[in-house]
Amino acid sequence: MELDFNENTEDDGHDETEGSDIASSTAEDNLSTPNKHEGKPEEIINQSDTSNTVDTPLFNESKGQENESSSDHMEESAAAATPPTASPQLQTPRTRDVSGRALDFDAIKSSSDLSDVLWHPTDLSVRPVMPSRKFDKGSDAIPSLPFHAFPPSDFVKLPKDKLDVLYNRIVIILNGNVNGEKENVIRYLEILGTNAEAANVLTNGPIMLVIVKMLRQSKALALRVKLSSLIGLLIRHSTSIGDDLANSGILGALTDGLRDRQEKVRRFSMAAMGELLFYISTLNDAARDNNPQESPSKDSRPSSSWQVPNSLISLISSVLRKGEDDLTQLYALRTIENISSHGGYWATRFTSQDVISNLCYIFRAPGKQESMRLTAGSCLVRLVRFSPPSIQQVIEKLPLKDITSSVFKGNQREQQICLNLLNMAMLGSHLLTNAGRHLLPLMEDKNLVSNLISLIEQGSEVLRGKALLFVALLCKNGKRCLSQFFCNARLLSTVDRLAKEKDKYVQHCLEAFVLSVVSTLPGLLESITGDIQQLLGGRRHGQISGLNSRNSPKNSIHFFPVVLHLLGSSSFKHSVVTPQVLQLVANLLKLTESPFQGRDDFQITLLQVWNQSRRSQQQSVITPSSSSAKFFLA
User: According to its UniProt record, what is one Pfam family this protein matches (predicted)?
Assistant: First the structure.
């Protein structure tokens, strides 16, 4: 199995400040490293993950994107070209939708099933857990060592005999008692580890086994911090890890580090563990790719030599509880975020009530840095995506109305997270206990319609697409939303303009949006037919108020203008006119031959609908027999 973040190692310096706390720890223990930056944890978190961070899509993981500049937008990352890696790394495609489909927009056919187009590649993006190392200008020079230290470009070309000699010299120093030499060797290994080929050599050779052994046996704080950091760095940049490391006790050593009293040890143990677990989680994908006859839905326990006990999953989950160091929590969140991208077995291991509850708390905790909050929100989206019943617990902790308010107030990443949660709640409304209690406050929000239209008008491509799907889901869950949205000329004109957009995701969302809304019309027309029949039969007394009246009675008749407005939209009119809809309209024409209170207003709109329908489809299999239609068409 080969793992490739497609990282440009020249850019490593942009996110290195997460590791800056090593400096202070080494200073305390007389193992100072003068080329490390110092920084407060809150500054480290802010610098490591800005508010508009660019997540790296699972299929196109770019070190350039890892810089997470606040000027970038997450939704642009899928379309942006990714520069080739600076170091020759072995590529292994690892993107799979949970159903086994590749995330390929061209392969998506028109469908009214909104779940087919709900997800954008950035929804399953992954980011390195382990921070890179940031050095002061000029400090990336190879330190002084009692042997010839080859630069990375030469190290990867060394023949086995020379490599063995170098290994022996390194091991002797690591096992020795001279702190200065030991520190310089670790520094040298860090420099080598940022090169993918060199990282592969070191990770799969005797050096890593020695480092793991030292981590298990060392009592010195500074050394444990450095060793756990080095392990994480090597695993992060490795594209292939052999089975020998699985038997080295590395999982146990990092687990002990997670239980350490010193927060610096816990931080880097968590980061290194996150990188390792993410690699292990990819092994199942590789096995399925190499065995295509096996059902994609079969997600059994991993068959590799790596065995991850439930106690370790519980330990990582416990890091999310209140009181843990923020950086350690951030690395745990990124671990869960990356691993849950695979769905199946690995996602279910973290889908517990305790984890969901803690993620909800962090996502809305006012005292947490934005980076942590948004990563927690991203974890929620992924876990619920692969375990739909979990949405019940999420909305118990995060009311839909509160999530909706964040759609219109947060930054783009938060908006995308919240739209995903809302869409999953609407799609899974049948799974909710007392769904009306959760949905009613949302649908009664007076600003919902105008705010959603503004988002569809002005949002990014990803947000526009997801907002369209949210509108469609609202309409499928409540007829009242049909009139609120589609008797609004502003929305229809915006939708017609979107039809000219070139973005594939927007187009697929728009197609699904149109088909989904149109699919509600037969049921609406049948309901209107039933209401009129009840009026004609005298079972429902009282008149039909004007179709534009705010005091319309609680029946479906006053929703009928929706059909007329849809027929006036270039995006909808051809989809609206189907034989089934025409037949239902013809039936209504026949019903209006008999008088009932409010018939005149209804009949005017009905004849306009029929006229518009005939214009949109000149040749129809339906020939209405009602005198009203014949008179109108004469």
Answer: HEAT_ULK4
User: Residue 429: inside a domain, yes or no?
Assistant: no
Q: Contact, 428 vs 420, CB < 8 A? A: no
505 and 533 belong to one structural domain: no
Tell me the C-alpha distance between 447 and 444, whole Å.
9
* Cα–Cα dist 295/299, whole Å: 9
Highest mean pLDDT among 47-56, 91-100, 303-312: 303-312
Is 160 within the bounds of a domain?
yes
Please indicate, yes or no, whether residues 450 and 531 belong to a single structural domain of this protein: no
Q: Where is pLDDT greater, at 481 or 43?
A: 481
Tell which residue, 378, 250, 275, has the closest CA to residue 335.
275
Q: What is the per-residue pLDDT for 226? A: 96
Please, what is the angle between helix 221-237 and helix 263-290, to 10°?
A: 20
The answer to whether residues 563 and 602 touch, using CB atoms and an 8 Å cutoff, is no
Domain count across the chain? 3
- Dig out the tokens for 441 from the structure: 């406050």
User: Is 17 within 8 Å of 47 (Cβ atoms)?
Assistant: yes
Per the CB < 8 A criterion, the answer to whether 194 and 9 are in contact is yes
Q: Give the Å distances, CA to CA, from 597 to 227, 544, 552, 553, 608.
A: 83, 6, 13, 13, 19
Give a yes or no: residue 312 inside a domain: no
Cα–Cα distance between 162 and 175 in angstroms, integer? 20
* Contact assessment for residue 335 and residue 235, using Cβ atoms and an 8 Å cutoff: no
Q: Check whether residue 533 and residue 472 sit in a common domain.
A: no
The pair of three-digit structure tokens given for residue 582, joined into one six-digit string = 């025409």
Among candidate residues 20, 244, 213, the one with its CA nearest the CA of residue 132: 20
Helix or strand or coil: residue 605?
helix
Residue ending a domain, among 519, 536, 564, is: 519
- Residue 385: pLDDT above 80? yes
3-state class percentages of the chain: helix first, strand second, coil last, to nearest 5: 60, 0, 35
Residues 108 and 8 reside in one and the same domain: yes
pTM of the predicted model over 0.85: no
- Structural domain containing residue 456: 446-519
314 vs 319: CA distance, rounded Å? 9
